[in-house]
Amino acid sequence: MGHEVVKVLVVDDEPMVCAHLRTILGSADDIEVVDAAHDGAAAVEAVMRHRPDLVLMDLRMPGVDGLTAIECIMKLDQPPKVVALTTFDADQYVMRALRSGASGFLVKSTPPEDLIGLVRVAADGHTVLSPVAMRRIVAASSDEDAARERAKALVGKLTERETDVLTCLGEGLSNAQIATKLFLSEATVKGYVSRMLVKLECTNRTQAGLLAYDAGLVSR
Predict the structure, then answer these.
(1) Its pTM surpasses 0.70
(2) Do the beta carbons of residue 54 and residue 128 sit within 8 Å?
(3) Average pLDDT, rounded, for the chain
């Protein structure tokens, strides 16, 4: 039985970049690029029209930028996963995109042979962001104080076990790895993560992982 096809929307103000991504992703049998948009406003419209599973979103675009588009998309009913596209892995925009609900980020120089696999991982709901990259962009954040205060207040709502799970998320562990580390079943971990996201006012695991850094649960 084949894999379910992942519907992808590509957003970039450079038509050549969109064409490049279409070519790479279109070579995979289980990925379909449903459309390409060249600014944030068109991206939001395309999401509502095509209901993609994943959006690859350029952050720096004239007119409505990627950050504004991500915020709008996250307010939709059952929004797609969004992965930010950037030229620099320490781009200040990346932190803002992650806080707005992006599931991760990819640099535009990602090798073609890696891109398809990373898109599949992101579509499955996993974070496309290494712990090392997470530490780097958190350290580069200019709004650390406000983020730290908010994170500590939100983490204060968690039980001790939920805090343990959150720490593991911040370390980049999967549900299976968390289950092994904390001597829990994977189903139990999934339950903890679901409840925790609600308490932390997070839309995904990536945002929760950022909170773990901001609250000081994971060293930078």
Answers:
(1) yes
(2) no
(3) 87
